[in-house]
Amino acid sequence: MSPSHPKLRALIDKGVGVETFVNAAEICTKARPVKGVEYLLGIVERQLREAADIGERPGMPKAAWDQSRASIEAKAEALGIGRWREFNLGPDREHWPAYLRRVKEAAKREARVPEGRCAADLEMASR
Question: Are 8 and 41 in contact (CB under 8 A)?
Fold first, then answer.
């Protein structure tokens, strides 16, 4: 499969993590006859729809944002940090534990910000 496959690209852009694709691939390889990439993408899309349905049910507790790579990276993007640069092998490489710690610290700062303001505004005002 080409990394530029539109469905694959869309799922990656939504923040679907590698582990989700690996789990779907295991399902595909266990099927008889073995299923292909379109089936795998369908599994991942279905899982996303089901997760969204679960998250929208009234009275159900919301899942913590720090429970999966996809949700952590989504939170990081919302905070202006961006996704983890997993394939950065340069001297400025940030390992996952450091990235996660940075996202959690930013989320804590954001939680202390008064409504209607953003953490970046307060950080600039404090200088």
Answer: yes
Residues 74 and 82 sit within 8 Å (Cβ to Cβ)? no
The pTM of the full predicted model, rounded to 2 decimals, is: 0.44
Give 118-124 contacts, CB < 8 A, sequence gap 24+: 119/79, 120/80
CB 73 within 8 A of CB 35: no
CB atoms within 10 A of CB 5: 14
**Long-range pairs for 28-35 at CB < 8 Å and ≥24 separation?**
none
pLDDT at 127 over 50: no
pLDDT number for residue 100: 92
- Size (the chain), residues: 127
Residue written as token pair 């919302």 = 78
Tokens, residue 90: 């340069």
